[in-house]
Amino acid sequence: MSYRFIYGPVPSRRLGRSLGISPIPDKTCNYSCIYCMLGRTDHFSNERRRFYSTQDILAELGDVLPHVVPAPDYLSIVGNGEPTLYLHLDELIDGVHSLSDIPVVVFTNGALLSDPAVRAALDRAELVFASFNASDDRLFRRINRPCPGITYETARQGLVDFARTRRHSRLWVSMMLMEGINDSPDVLEEVRRTLEEVRPDRVFVDTPVRPPAESFVRPVSPQALTQAQAVLGACASGSEMGSFPLSPGEDPVETLAEVCMRHPMRADQIEEVLATAGIDPLPVLARLRADTRFIVEEYGGQVFFLARERGRSVP
Fold first, then answer.
1. How far apart are CA 147 and CA 85, in angstroms?
2. What's the rounded Cα separation, in Å, for the pair 101 and 133?
3. 56, 195, 239, 313 from 236: Cα distances, Å
4. In a domain, 65, yes or no
5. CA neighbor of 262 nearest in space, from 23, 22, 60
6. Are 27 and 157 within one domain?
């Protein structure tokens, strides 16, 4: 059965099996990041809204949870965009807690951390995973391409303020490192100073491993990634998607399609999932290639399956 607000579980090397909750329309965001694996933002807005009924989202979650076996490690409020744009995020997190004792994680670009109401809502979650990728306003605008009114300083100070005022949530911060864009020693040093002020529980440094929104974005070398992790005191990169089981009786194409819509998958990852389930990968890959919902794209020497409506870069 397909659902409107709930998807997954999606495997992650950082979070284990995570059941996704999307309280916003697809690709609704206040950034249009050059590295985004979902492509360019379709609905560009910084207005917080009640896009959907909280009760409808929770009802769907309550219907799904009993059928997720084993239980997921996290319930992830993320969606295909910026979840803090959901006006009743506090109500949603409280409602999720009323249904399950599984920890809640919220992924955010941090743009709205300048809003005390957003900070208070996020502190209801067990974990907040925020991104921070720039060292000044020029670089911030080049990378994130934010809505008018969002600046480097407001985003930076919002992150600092959340870190200082949180009482419940753990805070993880990630930096997306791109060759020739934000990988210089000067940028890393300025980011390090900010992180010293923030004092997150964990820091991660990643580099694009899936096709980005813009074709000029390139990953850094493994050596550069390791060096940046050392400068920032970061954990080893762990953003790669892990394998996951297919439930008996499921159509593997539909299960994989649901994941690919939100997390583009490599062909070899799909082969691993299918082989583990005892399914011949070749017919399934052929069906995926023929499915009009998806496109096949090469990036970094790997073949990826992506959602067709994903915003494309201009060659």
1. 13
2. 32
3. 38, 17, 9, 30
4. yes
5. 22
6. yes
- pLDDT above 70 covers a percentage of the chain that reads 91
As a whole number of Å, the CA-based R_g of the chain is 19
Phi, psi angle pair for 121, to nearest 5°: -65, -45
- Cβ burial of 92 (10 Å; 0-12, 13-18, 19+) is buried
Distance CA 132, CA 202 (A): 13
Across the chain, mean pLDDT equals: 88
Half-sphere exposure of 34 (CA within 13 A, CB side): 23
Residue 34: C-alpha distances to residues 37, 169, 294, 295 (Å):
9, 29, 21, 19
For the chain, how many residues are written? Answer: 315
Checking DSSP bridges between strand 170-176 and strand 127-131, what pairing results, if any?
parallel
Residue 204 and residue 24: Cα distance in Å, rounded?
Answer: 26
Among 57-61, 64-68, 97-101, 303-307, name the one with the lowest average pLDDT: 303-307
Q: Is residue 194 part of a domain?
A: yes
* Burial class of 7 by CB neighbour count within 10 A (0 to 12, 13 to 18, 19+): buried
Rounded alpha-carbon distances, angstroms, from residue 32 to 109, 143, 185: 11, 8, 25
Specify the range with the lowest mean pLDDT, choosing from 98-112, 255-269, 278-292.
255-269
d(CA 12, CA 239): 7
Which structural domain range is residue 39 located in?
6-242
129: which 2 tokens? 């995973």
118 and 57 fall within a common domain: yes
Structure tokens that stand for 262 in this block:
């939100």
